[in-house]
Design goal:
- The protein is mainly alpha-helical.
- 67% of the residues lie in helices and 0% in strands.
- It contains 7 helices and no strands.
- It has helices at 8-20, 24-36, 44-57, 62-74, 82-95, 99-108, 116-128.
- Helix 3 (44-57) runs antiparallel to helix 4 (62-74) and helix 5 (82-95) runs antiparallel to helix 6.
- The chain is globular and about 40 Å long.
Length: 135
């Protein structure tokens, strides 16, 4: 809660209302809630579906693409698939301005040759764009 008491149940209700009106970011936030169990039962498979809905609603929703890539990279709610799905999601997220996602690929060697120098460059670009999310 920024400026208010934290209430995850209430946050989920508001995200659902926004999602019903077509909000891709709300769909992505519902995915995060499901992935981590924030205000709802932890359900990685449901999270993947929320992220997919967000991308279907707004194909350049880099945050949902990035989150979907992380699910594929770690095998959360879907079979682990670094070579195709995770890399595709991260690359699309990066193409829409999410350099951090590409940095993860280089940092961990997900679908690309591991390259910590290139990873650091991607993270610096994300920071320069105020788009770095260290979570």
């Amino acid at each position: 809660g920024l400026g208010v008491a934290q209430d995850l149940d209430r946050a989920v209700r508001w995200y659902r209302k926004a999602a019903e009106q077509g909000g891709a970011l709300a769909l992505d936030n519902l995915g995060c809630c499901s992935l981590y169990g924030w205000g709802v039962a932890k359900d990685p498979a449901a999270a993947v579906e929320w992220f997919r809905k967000a991308v279907a609603q707004k194909p350049d929703c880099w945050c949902a693409l990035s989150n979907l890539g992380r699910c594929h990279a770690h095998g959360w709610g879907v079979p682990r698939d670094l070579e195709q799905e995770a890399r595709r999601c991260f690359r699309e997220a990066a193409d829409h301005g999410e350099e951090e996602a590409l940095g993860w690929c280089f940092e961990h060697g997900w679908g690309v040759e591991k390259d910590l120098v290139r990873a650091a460059e991607c993270f610096r670009e994300a920071i320069d764009k105020n788009a770095y999310h260290p979570c």
